[in-house]
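ARCHIVE CARD
SHELF: 3
SLOT: left
DATA:
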Amino acid sequence: MKRVPELLAPAGSFESLKAAIKAGADSVYLSGEKFGARRYADNFNHSQLLEAVNYAHLRSTKVYVTVNTLIKESEVADMAEYLLSLYHMGVDAILIQDMGVLKIAREVVPNLDLHASTQMTIHNEDGLNWAKKNGFKRVVLSRELSHNEITLLGDKTNLDLEVFLHGALCYGYSGQCLLSSVIGGRSGNRGICAQPCRKPYQLLKGEKDQYGRLINLERIKLDDEYLLSTRDLSLYTNLKHLVESGIRCLKIEGRMRSPDYVFVVVSIYRKALDQISQGKWKPETEDLEALKLVFNRGFTPGKMFNKSGAQFMGMEKPGHRGLLVGTVLNYSMKKKELQIDLESQIHPGKGDGIYFKPEDNSPIKGMDLNEAPVFKGKKMYLRANFPVKKGSKVYLSRKKDLMDLISNQDTSNFKRSAQTLNFSFHLDENNFPVLKGEVKGEETPGISSQFSGKKAMEKAIKKPLHKNQIKKQLLKTGDKPFVVEIKNMDYSGGLFTPLSELNKLRREVIVDLETKIIESYRPGPEKIKKSRKSLEIFKNSLKNSSKPSFKSSSSRLKGDILPEVKLSAYVDEMDTLKSALESGVKRIYFEAPLLSPPQLVKKCIMKSKRPLNYSRDNMLNMLKEALYLSQSSSVQLVWKWPSITHPGLLKFFKDVLEKTPSELGIMVSHPGTADYIQKKYPDRAIYGSAALNIWNSFSLKKLAPLFSTLTLSGELSKKDLAELCSSLQEDSKDMELVVQGNIESLLSKEGLITVDLLKSLTTKTNLSSAYWALKDKKNHVFPVKIGADCNTVILNSVETCMVDYLPFLIKIGINNFALDARRKSGAYLKNMVTLYQEALSSLSSPDFKHNLKQTKRRIKKISQGGLTSGNFRRGLEK
């Protein structure tokens, strides 16, 4: 029998958990009331969570708890206590994103298994090596990896690899999307994404002015408006490929879905995996239709099987599509009856909901079926009080009872989750009944319990108990999660005892076994004692940590502080880099372009079939020139790598890195890459980008050994930053904050600007010199860039500007400030650096507040879309 991957199901509520287990899930993932990435699911309080864990473990089902949000400094102590409570409950693993949570977990509960959440954006070999080094047992890979990439990665690691199997997709890389955060303060990194990707947008094309701002924008007429809305992932027809690739776990998305949804989807995949293990599976049309009916936005096998464009996106609408069941042949005005040619195996019934989609895109009409349709062969007849155009497609959008879609589910999957309980019955020397129970399960081998009855069996006067009567009583387990087998019955007959005594004996054994099974998942007394001591030490360290007593703002802004302040700039073109050198910045982060604009158009927009490989020599020459110019100006140059480096691109960068001088610093966005560079090039200065999502001092401390300077998250509020900095030692690692620019808000592997989308453009359009943007319903304009490897980068519609908060930032200990001039001109950068230098110079003046206001007005005049302090001032939604 072929081994198949673990089937992992969502449990957003207790009813969904029961549905998942009943349907045959091997494991479930769920969240407590805090720190989970689905804050709007029902989730579980402490007592519910304990009950859920026990319920699942009694049914041989593993429980993984999501602790995969980023945490603030003020939440560190609560997180440590929460992790301890999960450890004591016996959860099988936790999923985490935050580097600080990793550090806390290793200090407080080192024996608790860790899974790297997909929000960690692990997508290459370096990421896997880092995860293994840091004690992770499993990695949930980024959904953007191809099947070939996953297979190759699996060959290079012994970590468990988990991938998503079915459900909603994000347009952006998980853990790297700030779009919801910058628009309305609802951060996906806190589990409250507002799903801006499901909103309508217009595509705009324009030019740039002298500062790099978008001007002369014109709307591109498109057929659809939900330009960032993806289809739903479904790998049902690809299951055999997944089983053969060595993936350890297949994950169904859907903690916001109903228990019925969970039951249907898990049942279908359970059946398929079981049949694959027996070597007899073929995809079934009816099962695929059932998956569509419970919910779909159109299905796609996703990036795993290299789908893009219309095969990946669902731009027509962001909601449920339903199941196509047929086409309207005729409408009888006299009978008020529709004749429909059926195309599906699942048919509508009384109480179901359907809708009609005309061929000419005229308005969609829908109805509930108050009467049962009439079926004649491949034709369906139903009453409708309104006419429907011939040729209209008929969709079944809602089934009255989804459970009708699954047959014979109870018996087979109950046996899967139930544990085998072997009973042995005998009488002792005094004729007291003795019952021994042994449980044999994969997770709980060798657990046994034995009890003796309180009354001896007596010689029967009239009706002695027969063996079969005793067996019958012992088999009565009710809703207990056991399949009972009578292993041994040592009873000669001729005796009697009340059946209630046998029932009591059976219950005592079962209750004791349940207790022992639950306890088998939990740490023993010594481990619990040790973990409590670890928590106590940890909490004391928080109280005793050195907290610098920062001087007042005015005294911190004297001359002894200003020389420490450094301005740096992000650039992505050689011309802008030269302007940066003239401007007086101390450090430049150079995101060197992989392709020229005409090459980008050919490779990424026109989708040229001829391979266009990146040139190592061109990149190397560009970097050497940039380094020579920088050293001539006594400016530190840092080569910034893209936030996402799939295996092929990562190899290219490593090949180039090998030939670059050691004076060239490197900025990366993942600790795995930093770890690789540090080991191979120990003399290199490595810088951490904002994509590392540093929200707390423990993240900073965890990453500090790998980096020279770390960029703090731009999602943090004024209060959050102050608390983070106050928890650090005076000599802590250099911290930097991006204080100016349209920040990268979303990064997607899906290329938005493609020839297929732009089919309405005239051939005269010069795509090489075109600039792109998206406009939402509130008329906010978000610049769009084609990034490395043809991915899509969406910038915030307004520029972050922190110039008026410089005194506060310096006061709390941040002395490195970055200006992001990527996609901007040299004139923009020169002006912006001058304005920030003036602002810093004026901080010791009595009129510095007035001067900062004046400076901010001048900054606004050259900014893209206006200015915002964003989450720094308003804070994120809780």
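SLOT: right
DATA:
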Amino acid sequence: MTALLGMVIALQVQSASAPRSAPVASRQAPASVGAVRAATAPVLDGRDDDPVWQAAPLVDEFVQSQPTEGAAPTFRTTARLAYDEHNFYVFVRAFDPRPDSIVRLLARRDDDTPSDRLTVFLDSYHDRRTGYGFAVNPAGVKADYAIYNDGNMDQAWDAIWDVAIRVDSLGWTAEYRIPLSQLRYSSQPSASFGLLVRRTIQRYTQTVSWPAYRPSSSGFVSQFGDVTGLDGLGSPGRAEVTPYVLTRNVQGPAAGNYARNQDVTIGGDLRYRLASNLLANATVNPDFGQVEADPSVLNLGAFETFFDERRPFFVEGKGLFTFSVNCVVVVDCRTGEGLFYSRRIGRSPQLAGTYGDESSATASRILGAAKVTGRLPNGFSLGVLDAVTDRVEGPGGLTTLEPTTNYGVMRGNQDYNGGAGSVGFIVTGVNRALDPSSEAWLHRSAYTGGLDARHRFGGGRFEISGLLSFSRVAGNAAAIALTQQTPVHLYQRPDGPLTFDPTRTSLSGTAQEVRLAKVGGNFQFETAYQRRSPGFEINDVGFLRQADQQEFTNWAAFAFRRPNRVFQQLRWNLNNWEHWSLAGLPTDRAANTNVHVQFNNRWWLHTGITVGNIGSTYCDRCARGGPAIRQDRYVSNWAGVQGDDRKVLVPSVFSSYMRGDQGRSETWSVSPSMELKVSTRFTTSFRPSYERNRNDVQYFGTFEDADGAPHFAFARLDQRTLSFTWRVGYTFTPSASLQIYASPFISKGTYRDVREVADARAAAYTARYQPYADEAVAANPGGFNVQQFRSNAVFRWEYRPGSTLFLVWSQGREGSSNVEGAESFRRDFADLFGRRANNTFLVKLSYWLAR
């Protein structure tokens, strides 16, 4: 790591004198405004009577971006800019003839409430690609975020800054003080920042900005104006330290009994500025007990469930480390597939349950993690991350459930032509300290790498991009054999072209993607091709559902952004996708259309329909290592309605219906919700969800007969799932809040009519399966009843800037059986809440220090 940091600093020195990328020639010259140097810092009180505000130029040419792009604002907005060697100051006046109608809701910091809002965006690198946002509403609730890739928002970024709010007879004001220590910029005698000031008028669903931001054009940061005349900016402070002390009381089952455990943890976070635009972050013995638990999911499919990252250290700056391998518009990047998936760090022990452990740790402890992030003056972005997790022992300490592991990631990206194009790379590595109890299960090492590039042309309206990536995992032959047989690869398929080799000690693969898109204007499109070889394996520190796959996807969209008598805005999407194995076996062919409309009463309507398995397609993953099975066409449709979020009561409902297997399988679901703004500081929401699933060909298992021959069995599943999600938020002040989350979950089902694969590729549905002859399995296939409850209550108080007190109570209850049972859902929930709970009580106190 020391050598790596040395290289990073060397890059910084070499590029300090490098020229900036020239702006995109085809773009119109950005608007410009000057900032005055403050001889005396303004008093932060929301008034503009300080001498510096009288001297600062007035910015007042604000333009609508929503609902009518390019139109004049309903109300006037003005801004003034100033700076000194330590801070950047902004004063914004939002005129409003009816101050009593200004919407001002109290909420926890960073919550996006339906309020009026003022936001100052700064591109301090002045690279037209990255920046920071500082938002506040009339109740004084702050939000901040980092911006990457010319428009993606990282809301986990938290800075130390201040703002004063004042509501008066003219409207309301916001007076900002943003320390230069929170920004990253190049050390130059005279600097320029990118700037956009945005105002939201909630009761009109109107957004205005200076300079004009046009949603129909590509990019966001690239549309910023310029702040010039920033002479003699001071050198920001170099170090910030946030030590914390935490005490935790855990109550729950342990070794068949109910036990209590109390511990105290000391740790901390360090931010050290290596240069004005290069920052090192480190965390020692981190704890994320204040983070909300993942939602309950019963996964009966072949592929792993993707969960979003919620831990602040890993969420902050995640955009810089992103290297997606399936981020096309057709899937809206929802699969999460990529070379770096930070949830692998501190994951649940992979061998939990292997050695008879009944109550192993739910996560691997992170001993420490560090990262270096920054953007050099020549447009080169760099991110380096390293983390070490501790060994998780099995019963008696004689076995290993998760070995001591080191994770490393390095990501770089070079912009050119003022951000119109870029070339990047990524390298990841995982190394484990295996022992005899773990080497037959886990990879000893795993490495991945990739190159990506993009280029915009045609005035920034078109974009072409592509990537190349590789992977290599190595370890014991038994561990590599397991990898070959996972649903990601399935080398053992009897009708497949791949050869399963139990003697291999490594596995390698590659992936490629090329994409052409129109990213600007009211009509947009994208066409993309992706390929992943059979041996492509990135799941040690990345996320991948399926290798041995080719995809060809197409998307087109028509956006109607100008309001008329019926709607405020409308978007119509058309999608098509086709999948094959690398041997050419068609696995999916589908078409979709969906429409999203916001009416003039601010209600939303969403609806869409998909027709899939068009023509002859085959599922090569359904039998989990068995032959590819012919699929029948399915039709899936969905619809949803959302109420006006300006109202006290905001209802919504979403429903879906899918029918396939020639009418033998169907799934329908409904999920209504209700959000209630009890007062400006108290909100609550309630969302029940019900799903009924009848799957005629649910995978049931692979069984061997007396001769060792495999039989791939399927059954008809009748499943019902009911869950509730309840949230309560109470904000005492903009810096103190209480949030409560509770979610009970029941999913139960019964299997029947067990069959095995007969003629997997037969055109006739009934010829593909035959009754399974083993009565021991088929006579009583059973079912399941899974019960879970997850909740937490979090009190958060930022008692001084950057210093926080957390009081947390988390509770979990769970149980399961291998029969559905005859009880009603009401009885199931009573049974769930009758189970003994796992309770965790946590107090975490942090204190921010800087110099």
